[in-house]
Predict the 3D structure of the following.
Amino acid sequence: MGKILIVDDERAIRRALREILEFESFEVDEAEDGAAGLSMIETNEYDIIFSDIKMPKMDGLELLEEVQKRNIDCPIIMISGHGNIETAVDAIKKGAFDFIEKPLDLNRILVTVRNAKEKSSLVETTKTLKKTVQRLKGSSIIGETLEIIQIKEMIAKVAPSDARVLITGENGTGKELVARALHENSNRKSGPFIEVNCAAIPAELIESELFGHEKGAFTSAVKQKKGKFELASEGTLFLDEIGDMSASAQAKVLRALQENVIQRVGGEKNISVTPRVVAATNKNLRKEIEEGNFREDLFHRLSVILIHVPSLNDRKEDIPLIAEHFLSVICQEHGIPKKTFTPDALEAMKNTNWTGNIRELRNIVERMVILCDQEITGFDVNTFSNPRA
């Protein structure tokens, strides 16, 4: 369910809270004062923190301020047997999630914990959205060719299930857009969409990225970290460029898919995970299997549903629609009055060899929006799509 820290100098209070929270399947740590609590917060990740106000060494309000200074996004629930309205208001103003008076009421604790968990989930989702919203602004699966219509129909059928999907296609064809469409049309759309680029992460770090690690698992592991499988348990985990994953990571991913269980690097505890897994690759995985670079059993686990995204050269009739879409989005992004394509410009784009697919087309359109006159011509397309080195 999550991990909670209790900071209180009264052992009886810590024990009572622990029993309540462990009964609700939370993992619980304890600290006897604010200083000890701050040390644990700096080296572990918590979903919720309970903190007494009156404590030796560092009181609860000081602990709250220190957590705020470190920009740690974790709901802190203040508890006190000496509380009054002024104290509660002061704690909330300083950033506390809630204030509960002693003696602690069971129902009040459980309701507050539930609300705090919802806030943590919202914060995590907001972070993910902020990172991707600008990059994906205006993005969608655009096209009217038979291949694209079939992909949209497949998404509509498959998205509501939790079936694993393997998306294939050349670089830049829009595999991530298909993965996001599957998520956004699924029953998990309120959960996070967690992306991992398996090709961009060094082989020695991919397992930590996927499964998390415990403090001290390796030299730079100064605190516990949740992995992407854990973070995506209520949502979708998108494993991009799965064909570049190391053999060791492949074996662990296979176990996670078979048993819905992972172990953090340096840990021995089994952690239950339930993400919907969508993978993508630009490689021919059957050929990779023949050459011993990819596990056949993992391939079959991932490829319950196969979706192939065609190259831009294989759907040239969609190019005018995509180019017009990018033209509108890019002009808006740069604050430039809407420019137009001449008919020969659109024809020239259809006749261009798009080796970089949609990604290359977007780059060329952006280049022409910035450098060309109000009307973009076929001459401009030929000039800017074949720049001199």
